[in-house]
Amino acid sequence: MADPSAHERGAALLTVLLLVAVMAVVASTALQHLALATRMTGNGASVDQARAYAAAGAEMARLRIGDLVSASPGKTTLRGGWLGAPQSLPVPGGTATARVTDGGNCFNLNSLVSGQSEASLKVHPVAVTQFQALMQLVGIDPREAQRIAAATADWIDSDSAPQPGGAEDETYARAPAPYRTANRMMVDASELRAVAGVTPAIVARILPWVCALPDTQMSPINVNTLLPGQAVLFAMLLPGQLSVDQARQLLARRPEDGYGSTVTFWALPAVSGMTPLAEVQSQVKLTTRWFHVDVDVDVGGVRVQERALIDAQEQPARIVRLGRSEGA
């Protein structure tokens, strides 16, 4: 006759083995989670370190921009090869590169309105015309360009009355996921994606030419730093009067040391017969106030790309915005 205690011992052993197996699975899962948490913590620390390096790179660029402006307060030119040139920065355990560009040579989306407070932003018709002209110059259908220019101004202005062809809250309320207009200045040009009628294809065409400067002033185009490849930004100032090819030729013939006065510039044969509005004439600048600094940091396999906007109007120059680069 079988011993009952043997069955009990066998059942107890089986229970112990099952318990050990369960504990092993639990321990293995816990170790995996711990390893993942450790890697995530390490990655987070690496990202924070890379961002700190990017901020330091922007600060170094700010000092150099201050020196650039101080050396030639009357005009900002391309001398020294600073525009877009990669500058290596010393970074322990990695690499960092900074590039400085003229941050004012773009269409300022916030110039579509005038006013200083969020409660008093009104549509600026001249800027709307320029934005429409810019879009047409980069290949956007004129009717689409008109609607987008009006809708973008409506997005920023303080009132709720749409312009002809524009869009206010009632348009966005009909979207699958309803939302409202911002009724404030844009912080980043990428906000254009939220505007009615703006498709990814249109964004791809427009985004390289636009910016969101922290004021409502008309786009300050520096004819001493504007490159021939950016001729559309000058042609948009004189829609119907100046072609992109004419603007490109004008910029290609610029003196090496730049123009010394806007009077001299507007007296050039290429533009002397044109009739720009007074506020359009004043958009043409010889100095640069806004600079963009793009910093690319790679540390321990972690890559961070950040962009700083620097205001050099007063000395010392100051960083007014620092954030992730578009597309990074």
TrEMBL record:
Keyword terms: Cell inner membrane, Cell membrane, Membrane, Protein transport, Transmembrane, Transmembrane helix, Transport
Residue ranges occupied by any T2SS protein K second SAM-like domain in the UniProt entry: 221-282
Keyword Transit peptide among UniProt keywords: no
Subcellular location: Cell inner membrane
Location of the T2SS protein K first SAM-like domain: 105-215
Principal location listed in the UniProt entry: membrane
Pfam families, per database record: T2SSK, T2SSK_1st
GO BP field: protein secretion
GO cellular component: plasma membrane
InterPro entries: GspK, GspK_central_sf, Pilin-like, T2SSK_SAM-like_1st, T2SSK_SAM-like_2nd
Protein family (similarity comment): Belongs to the GSP K family.
Name recorded for this polypeptide: Type II secretion system protein K
Taxonomic source organism: Sphingobium fontiphilum
Taxonomic lineage: Bacteria, Pseudomonadati, Pseudomonadota, Alphaproteobacteria, Sphingomonadales
